[in-house]
Specification:
Length: 131
């Protein structure tokens, strides 16, 4: 059985820039999930990623589509959204959706964001842990 891992925005950035996260996304031990909100946040930085990588924006968007992560709409984790807002909304409202997904699915959260370090009841992994 595959281990389900919820992916925050930073690992997507790393993978699209050719970092170590790219290899992890294709590790057969894992099933990756994320939120539509997280993917929309990543897409906001496609221009920057393209500039930094020397690739065209359309190629970055295509690469993002190829990363094997199932994306969930807010209705899938809506019942945990208020709890997530209470836990992290004061620190970073952009983290509410991914935390709500983690609370709903009991998935492990793959992030480099220190805002999640003190959240009780969730398991965190960083890129270095998955290599």
């Amino acid at each position: 059985m595959k281990i389900t891992i919820a992916v925050d925005a930073q690992p997507f950035f790393s993978a699209l820039l050719g970092g170590a996260a790219r290899k992890i996304f294709f590790d057969p031990r894992f099933k990756f999930i994320t939120t539509d909100f997280t993917l929309s946040e990543v897409k906001k930085y496609v221009h920057f990623i393209a500039e930094k990588s020397g690739k065209q924006e359309k190629d970055i968007l295509q690469a993002l589509k190829l990363l094997p992560a199932i994306s969930y709409q807010q209705q899938h984790y809506q019942q945990k959204r208020l709890t997530a807002e209470q836990l992290i909304g004061g620190r970073d409202p952009k983290d509410v959706d991914i935390l709500a997904l983690v609370l709903t699915t009991q998935a492990i959260l793959w992030t480099e964001d220190k805002d999640f370090d003190e959240i009780p009841g969730i398991l965190l992994v960083h890129t270095r842990d998955l290599l």
